[in-house]
Amino acid sequence: MLRALVERGEGVVTRRAVVEVVPEWVLWDACRGGWLLRVLPGVYVDAALARGERGSSAEERSRRLSPAPAGLSGAAARDPLDAPAFLRLEPLTRRRAALAYADGRAALSCLTALDVWGLRRQPAGEPVHLDAPRGSGLRPRPHLAVHHRQGFVMGPPQVVSRSGVPVVRLEQALVDAWPLLPAVHRPAPVIRAVNDRLTTPQRVFAALKTVPKLAARAELRTLLDRLDAGCRSPLEIWGHDRVFTGPGMPPFQRQTRIVVGGRTMYLDVWAERERVDFELDGASTHADPRQREIDLRRDALLATAGILVVRFAHRRLVHEVDEVRREVLAILATRRPGP
User: Fold this and answer.
1) Does the structural domain 235-335 have CATH classification 3.40.960.10?
2) Strand 107-108's sheet: what is its strand order?
3) C-alpha span between 280 and 330 (Å, rounded)
4) Could you please report the per-residue DSSP string of 243-277?
5) pTM of the predicted model as reported, rounded to 2 decimal places
6) Domain locations in the chain?
7) Which of 98, 179, 213, 238 is the most exposed, having the fewest neighbouring CB atoms within 10 Å of its CB?
8) Are the C-beta atoms of residues 102 and 130 closer than 8 Å to each other?
9) 11-31, pLDDT tens digit by residue?
């Protein structure tokens, strides 16, 4: 019966669920025998799911477990937490264990939520993050961060189900995770979320307004402004800030959709009056000869519609800013219609 419970929970079971169907001593026997590990208070997992446990003998696994106390009543609360076992779990099992510990009182959040949303893979060493209402009684544990939020409700719109687990809405996860990431890695999840059309800059900004004291808030607001202007990559943001703004520059359109010959294309930096498309070629993508051939065919098709395509390589945009600016202004001057 105990094994059936563990299988039903995909390797995770709680003490509460166990004692509803079998005596508690069955649970302790499973721990002494080494096939169950206690990873959080009242939460146990199949030892085969913990890295380093597979292949160990029952006796070796048993030696790593704390002995059960003499009395069964309240035993789980008195057992020391086996934090290393929780850390050795695979990410999906670790999240299931954390949610089992929360028992419906919390949702995956912050960096863990970004992983669930498919925007950033969470490294094994980072803690699982949970958001819970104030007064929920949930306590943080080693490798488990619990954020108590005033006014937090375990339901829409604050919490949604994704991949079968409760997770905070995307915009809140992006805002809350922002100060937890190294500065160089902060923009990527936000940019990807907007590019994949999972959200919009306006919706993320609305979530940002609810956290007025967020660390590095100004940087996130600037990024959202650039995304709202149409920038869709760090290179486009660089170009927006340092090349395609300032004296003499027209009001460019960014990521403009255009259809030529039945093909839909998006123009990086579009000067509509002059009919010039400035393409910003990344350092890696456009080094591929196949991509180069695709670009040439695209540029030729745009030429049939009277559109001049000018490409700037990553190296020039970053290291020859003044020269690129002069070239842009000169090209635009030759393309402007006469009086």
Assistant:
1) yes
2) 144-149, 128-133, 107-108, 165-168, 159-162
3) 18
4) TSSSTT----EEEEEEEETTEEEEEEEEETTTTEE
5) 0.82
6) 2-93, 104-227, 235-335
7) 213
8) yes
9) 999 999 999 999 999 999 999
